[in-house]
Amino acid sequence: MSSSPETQAKKRKRQRPIISCTECHRRKQKCDRQLPCGNCTLRSASHLCQYETKPARRGSDSSSPTSVSPIDSTATTTSAILASAEVTGSFGYVRNRGCSAVDVLEKLDLEDGPWRPEPVLDNAEQAELQNYNRIITTIPPRPYTMLLVKVFFAECNWIYWCVHPGSFCQLLEEWYERCTSKTPPVPSHGKSGDGERRRALSQFPVLLLQMCAVALQMLPREHYKQMSQLNILGKEDFRSLSIAYSNSACELATLLAPYQATLSRVQQWFLRASWLKSEGRAIESWHALGQSIREAQELGLHSQQPRTYNGGVENVASLWQREIEKRVWTNLYVWDRFMSMILGRPTLINDRHCTVTPPLDCNIPNDITRTPPVPRSPLDPPSQFTQRLLDYQLAHMINEIDDLQMESAKNMSHSFEGTDRLQFSIESIIECYPPGLAVSNRDTSHDGGPNTVFLRAQAELLRCSTYSLIVGLHRPFVFTRQKSRIEIVRAGISVLESQQRLLEATREHHHTIYTLNFFTFDPAVLIAAIIITQPLSLSQDLLDIALASIREGQKRMERLGRRVKLAEKGATILSLLIKKAESSNAASQHLRMRNAFSMSPTDSANSFSSAKYTHQSSHSPSSSLANSDSDGWLELPVEGFSNNSTGNCNGFAPINTSILSTRELEEILAAPLPDPMVVTHGLDTTVQFGTGMMDGLEADNFWQNLLYVPFP
User: How does pLDDT run across 593-616, given as a tens digit for each residue?
Assistant: First the structure.
């Protein structure tokens, strides 16, 4: 029986062998016959790349397909099964702990090498790859990128020193070279060696974009004309460009696998937190800081356990690399502690899990392959990171302050011995500052050197954080203890004076540093609150100096408002507070004069002579801070307080380690101006809290942005 024509056509049809990998064959894509092939590599699905016939591996000269033995097929299947387990991603294991299941699997040495579980992506792999390529195209052209990188290291990096210039530039050059090669730096989750390097290169753009955003925030005017060409309309709208680059960096970092953390990702989220802080978006900054801390812990930066670099080879470069990572962790710890003190939020880092030692106090060379790390001697000038190391020491004091305040909240009959002891500890730390960063009589001979260009500004930043810590220590007792009010006013004046010197040590494009805005507004508000509510608890000399400092701070915020919108709003609020403080001062002067006339001439002279206050701008521990006894101050009875206000008090203030809470500030701003002609019985004065002072002001999350701003 003859076969039908259809049957004969089927027999004549040539059975073509499938030479593509199974994934490219299923997706109907052209395969380059590599193992893994280019398409699977681009989709981060290298573990799924399999062949019915054995292909030529990358770098091999053989191109003819050969059959795969059952053993090879079994091995490939085993690898796919192990890879599909996705141990680190789905189960949540952390490597390098020594006892977890993923560490045991890595020690088994499965399939000719250490086992690295590969993540299994969902069906949206191709869309994710397209999004990756789309975000990469937002990076500015290379000449503009190199200019922004130069601006970042020259004008921005000195504040935290979180990015090493030499390592970054080396990675940047390698990234540009790989972009023009046959193996572009796309997301890859290969095994150790080249796979980890490719992963670092594929995630490098997140740091590059965020650095461009920060550089545009502090772009000097001499670069305006050149950088304006990046804008389609040629306008100098660098804030919009900065927002676009920062958001693109976050989108790209979120797109990548969260359990494939790299140092670039940690640095990107930290710079994102800094960028948000300068934008006045403090709550978002705190969350970005948390993301950076979690990814740093994923890398093991908090642990002293040694990590492997360059395939496990121990050399000079690996020692410096560990120092770079320690500096990143130091910045994260300092931010976590100071933001916790100011925002009143829980800390994100548990000291019980931190075993890493502090980094060495030395300058890191651009070429980290030659000389090993050696700490500076006491006679050497401060290094670029000395100021941050001292902040790191102060950050550990915040733990003791929190413990003391939590203990005091439980014990209503609180003694202030612990508070005075902590202040003495802070003063002891101040005395150990190196001469180039000293609080008083600072050695200025090293200012302007090749490695100390911003030493003057760093000294003021350190001074500001030091006295802000003293303010935070006494802040819970601002309305219950006279000695604390005096210390707050003294330290607040020092902060305001330091901010003025910091403004003089920086240029206009540095005015976006939020330290200049927040730590001008915050101590001024707290000092004004004390003057408005308890003016008689301060001597007239101290009160006059405090008012002068607040006025100077208000003028400074007006100047900053030319570049920072939030500073303009803060200047408006300070002007209202100054009017109220001046009225309160006038009322207190009337009461002082009335009391002087009612006293005998001898008693009056003794009272005002004991209230004499000599202000020292240096505020050295041996002068103003050490002289914390309130016996030499004018103590007049004020409503709600007794003359023995330095002793125990039955009512402990609510725990709030921020300098001034939102509720208290709103009450102060809502209070009517005191009438100097209206006084109460005797020497007591009462400030009534009402409404009407905030009418007409903008309310676009101003309090949230202005009051809850992270530091440093």
Answer: 887 776 555 554 444 444 444 444
How many whole angstroms separate alpha carbon 582 and alpha carbon 439? 30
Nearest to 645 by CA among 443, 495, 483: 483
CA dist 366 and 170 (Å) reads 10
First to last CA, the chain: 92
* 621: its two tokens: 């521990």
Take residue 125 and report the two structure tokens written for it.
């792999």
CA torsion angle 657 660 661 663 (round to 10): 150
Domain boundaries, the chain: 20-93, 125-309, 421-707
Half-sphere exposure of 237 (CA within 13 A, CB side): 9
CB 710 within 8 A of CB 465: no
Structure tokens at 374: 């050696």
Q: Collapsing DSSP states into helix, strand and coil, what is residue 556? A: helix
The list of the chain residues with pLDDT below 50 reads 1, 55-87, 109-122, 189-194, 604-661, 673-712
pLDDT at 667: 54
By the 10 Å C-beta count (0-12 exposed, 13-18 middle, 19+ buried), 5 is classed as exposed
The reported pLDDT for the residue numbered 74 is 41
Burial label for 112, CB within 10 Å (0-12, 13-18, 19+), is exposed
Backbone angles phi and psi of 414, in degrees to 5: -85, 140
Dihedral of the CA atoms 596, 598, 602, 605 (nearest 10)?
0
Give pTM, 2 decimals: 0.72
β-pairing, 66-67 with 53-54?
Answer: antiparallel
pLDDT score for 706: 40
- What the block records as the tokens of 513 is 């540093």
pLDDT in tens, 156-173: 999 999 999 999 999 999
